[in-house]
Amino acid sequence: MRVVLDHEDAERLALSLRQHGLPDEIETSGAGEGALVVVVLAGSGTVAAAAEHWLRHLPHPGAFIVGCTARTRAACQCEDWWPEGICDLVTAPDDDALQTELVMRLVRLAELEAILDADWLHERAVGTSPVWRRTLQLVAEVGRFGHGACLLQGESGCGKELLARLVHDLDPARRRGPFVVVDCTTLSPELSGSELFGHARGAFTHALNARDGAVALADGGTLFLDEIGELELPLQARLLRVIQEHTYKRVGEDNWRQSDFRLTCATNRNLEADVQSGRFRGDLFFRITQWTVRAPSLAERREDIPALVQHFLAQGGQRVPQIMPEVMARLKAADYPGNVRELRNVVLRMADRQRGFGVLSTGCLQGMIPTRALTQTPITWEQTLASAVEGALDAGMGLKGIGQLAESMAVQMAEQRMGSTTRAAELLGVTPRALQLRRRGRQPEAGQ
Ligand SMILES: Nc1ncnc2c1ncn2[C@@H]1O[C@H](COP(=O)(O)OP(=O)(O)OP(=O)(O)O)[C@@H](O)[C@H]1O
């Protein structure tokens, strides 16, 4: 992690950082091109100017930290101009406390950076687009340093459960414990209490044995409530206590039990609007949103599509087929209302269809992605030609063979289109005699 300290007291801060074991480059002067983190100390009225400079030079995703003391915060009015997700305000009562705070923040950033660079993360959560990287950075922070409940919001199929599992796996206190998933859309009104809290023997007809519910099973780990926005109001009320107190009663039992779990929830609904309309309890909303992470839709990170396609092909377990450039162009341009899940299904279907050929060509796309998307996707003739040449190379043809084949096809097509050799020759910019010779496989001499 390369850090630039654009800071009145930069040398002292650099010394503290080195003492805290920050191993990477720390610069106290210089242009700072390519620096990942820039720290500016507010106070001398230079913050806005410094921000303007650094925000132009920061790589994506970078971090721009403004340090303020109680004395300088009002003067810098940072919140007015900084772009969300990049700038970070660190405040402290005085200069010494600010120094300590900044050191802590940078040490944490370095740890997050190491997580973001880890191979295991990229193998699971594929994508390098700025919006996805920012999402992973927040998830890493919530998982590694956060303790409270976290709500993941985003469209269906965009990776909320995958992110919830990352929060669990990054949490040092929970990762060795269970990760228990409850899909709230499948909780029936009659059995939901038992599924969440368990039941005593004989609590209801067919309750032949006592049983633990999801809350008990999640003890020591994470309880993941998927689609929490679908929970009925009475169940929302019962959840409140267990979330706050971590105590619950089994159905048909009177004694309180304890379960120590971390709560993560996901929804594709606008829960704030549901709170406004009375569909979701406001008190529950505030208890599940200590952290909120928005998972971006695939449309917001189209540049990640090629890597995701390769990732899903590799999951097939067989020899990974080669993809024609125009196939990738179409996959990249198509719409996926079902987000990454839909892309995954398309890729796996294509791979099934082409199994054994080793190459995914446009033929395997028919019926795979919605016609609307296919027809909207412009395919240039260069892409089509590139795809054909790639196929010929795959078939082992050399330059001469490819040239001859292309030429004879061009002659054939021009004649078909124009209906006569003379007009076809005109179209191709050669004389009719030259065309006849070419058709007979002889090279015309100059001037023919
Ligand atoms: N960045 C990613 N890298 C690799 N696979 C991904 C990524 N994002 C999503 N997936 C895969 O896409 C599929 C859907 O993801 P997931 O189930 O996490 O979505 P979701 O938002 O929870 O969906 P829903 O709202 O329907 O519950 C899964 O197979 C998941 O592994």
Please compute the radius of gyration using only Cα atoms.
30 Å
| CATH domain fold name of the largest domain | Rossmann fold
The count of domains is 4
Shape: flat
The class by helix and strand makeup works out as alpha/beta
β-strand percent reads 5-15%
- Would you report the number of β strands? 14
CATH class of the largest domain: Alpha Beta
Strand order within the widest beta sheet: 2-1-3-4-5
Spans of 5+ residues with little confidence (pLDDT < 50)?
Answer: 371-378
Q: If you average the pLDDT, what whole number results?
A: 80
Assembly level: single chain
Q: Quick one: biggest sheet?
A: 5 strands, parallel
Quick one: CATH superfamily of the largest domain? Answer: P-loop containing nucleotide triphosphate hydrolases
Percent helix? 40-55%
CATH architecture heading of the largest domain: 3-Layer(aba) Sandwich
Compounds present? adenosine-5'-triphosphate
Give the N-to-C terminal Cα separation.
Answer: 67 Å
What is the number of helices? 20
Provide a quick synopsis of the model.
With 448 residues, this protein is of the alpha/beta class.
What can you see in these coordinates?
This protein has 448 residues and is of the alpha/beta class. It has four domains: 3-117; 130-294, P-loop containing nucleotide triphosphate hydrolases (Rossmann fold), CATH 3.40.50.300; 298-394, Helicase, Ruva Protein, domain 3; 399-439. 48% of the residues lie in helices and 12% in strands. The strands form four sheets. A five-stranded parallel beta sheet has the order 2-1-3-4-5, sandwiched between helices. It has a five-stranded parallel beta sheet with strand order 7-8-11-6-12. Strands 9-10 form a two-stranded antiparallel ribbon. Strand 1, helix 1 and strand 2 form a beta-alpha-beta unit. Helix 4 (95-117) crosses helix 6 (130-145), helix 6 (130-145) packs across helix 7 (160-170) and helix 18 (399-418) crosses helix 19 (421-428). The radius of gyration is 30 Å and the shape is flat. 30% of the residues are buried. Bound molecules: adenosine-5'-triphosphate (ATP). One of its GO terms (biological process) is regulation of DNA-templated transcription. Pfam families: AAA_lid_14, Sigma54_activat. It comes from Silvimonas terrae. This is Transcriptional regulator with GAF, ATPase, and Fis domain. Residues 125-352 form the Sigma-54 factor interaction domain.
